[in-house]
Design a protein that fits this description.
With about 90 residues, the chain is an alpha/beta fold. The chain is built from four helices and three strands. It has a single domain, classed as Response regulator (Rossmann fold, 3-Layer(aba) Sandwich), CATH 3.40.50.2300.
Length: about 90
């Protein structure tokens, strides 16, 4: 809920949402869905120890990275996502 509140107060561009799938009170899939309603086209990278097929049931556009991963892998994925066309909506790569 705090991420949604921060997003609604922040008037600038948010380049990327990085979130775990499993969180208390609201999961990462719901967070992506709600932020994309407020900010169409926001890019999102969800991370989880669960498989991508388990996570894909949320039917939300986001990139996915399975745990465990090295910091260099996370950085490369973020750079790839941010290098995409800013006019494109996030693409479901799950």
């Amino acid at each position: 809920m705090e991420a949604i509140q921060i997003s609604r107060r922040y008037k600038g561009v948010i380049d990327l949402l990085l979130s775990d799938v499993t969180m208390p009170r609201m999961n990462g899939l719901e967070l992506v869905k709600r932020l994309q309603q407020d900010r169409p086209g926001i890019k999102a990278l969800l991370i989880s120890g669960r498989t991508s097929s388990e996570v894909a049931r949320g039917n939300t556009s986001f990139d996915f990275l399975a745990k465990p991963f090295l910091p260099t892998v996370l950085r490369a994925r973020i750079e790839t996502i941010l290098a995409g066309d800013p006019q494109d909506e996030a693409v479901d790569t799950v």
